[in-house]
Specification:
This protein has one domain: Arc Repressor Mutant, subunit A. It is about 60% helix and about 10% strand. The chain has seven helices and five strands, in the order H-H-E-H-H-E-E-H-H-H-E-E. The strands form two sheets. Strands 1-3-2 form a three-stranded antiparallel beta sheet. A two-stranded antiparallel sheet has the order 4-5. The radius of gyration is 18 Å and the shape is elongated. The termini are far apart.
C-alpha cells in the first residue's frame, strides 16, 4: 500500500503550520509595535550590534542592501533608527536605534523571519541543501520561479541576484 497520500498530506499540513506561525507572529508584531515583520526584524538586527553598516544588516537578514535601505527609510521617518556618518571616513554610514527604537524593542515580540533564519543557520549544510532543493521543487510546481520574492507578509520585495544559469536567488 502506498504512503504517497499520507506523505502529501503531511507536506501540506506542515506548509499550513509554517504559514500559520508566520502569519500569527507577524500580526502580533504589528499589533504590539505598529511595524511590519521585516521592519521589526531590522530593528532587532540593528540592536544586536549597533552601530552597524547597512551591508551588514543586509547580510544578517539575508536581504539585498537596496531592500534594507527601503526598510531603514521607513524606520527613520518614524524616528526609530538614525543613520550616523563616520567622522573618519564620510563614505561610511552606520545605523543605530534611537531612544524611541530602543523603547519599542522592549515590548516587541519575536519575529518569525528571525526565528526561521536562526533555526536554519543551526542546520548542517546537507540538511540546508535538502531543504533548498525541496523548496525549489515546490516553487517549480507552483510556476513561481520568476516571481520576485516579497518579504513575508510585507510589501517589500527582495531584489533577486543571479546564482547560476537560469536561476535566481535572493540576497
Amino acid at each position: 500500500m502506498s504512503k504517497r497520500p499520507e506523505t502529501v498530506a503531511e507536506i501540506i499540513d506542515n506548509l499550513r503550520r509554517v504559514f500559520q506561525v508566520v502569519n500569527e507572529q507577524s500580526k502580533k508584531a504589528e499589533k504590539k509595535t505598529g511595524l511590519t515583520g521585516p521592519q521589526l526584524w531590522a530593528i532587532k538586527t540593528i540592536a544586536q550590534e549597533a552601530p552597524i553598516m547597512v551591508s551588514e544588516i543586509a547580510r544578517r537578514m539575508y536581504l539585498h542592501p537596496a531592500t534594507v535601505v527601503g526598510i531603514l527609510d521607513r524606520l527613520e521617518k518614524q524616528d526609530l533608527v538614525a543613520r550616523v556618518r563616520s567622522t573618519i571616513d564620510k563614505r561610511v554610514v552606520r545605523v543605530e536605534l534611537t531612544k524611541q527604537g530602543r523603547d519599542l524593542l522592549k515590548k516587541a515580540p519575536e519575529v518569525a523571519q528571525g526565528l526561521l533564519v536562526s533555526g536554519l543557520e543551526q542546520l548542517t549544510t546537507k540538511n540546508l541543501e535538502t531543504i533548498s532543493a525541496s523548496l525549489d521543487q515546490l516553487v517549480a510546481i507552483l510556476g513561481a520561479q520568476g516571481i520576485p520574492p516579497k518579504l513575508i507578509l510585507s510589501r517589500e520585495v527582495n531584489k533577486p541576484v543571479k546564482s547560476g544559469p537560469g536561476s535566481t536567488r535572493s540576497r
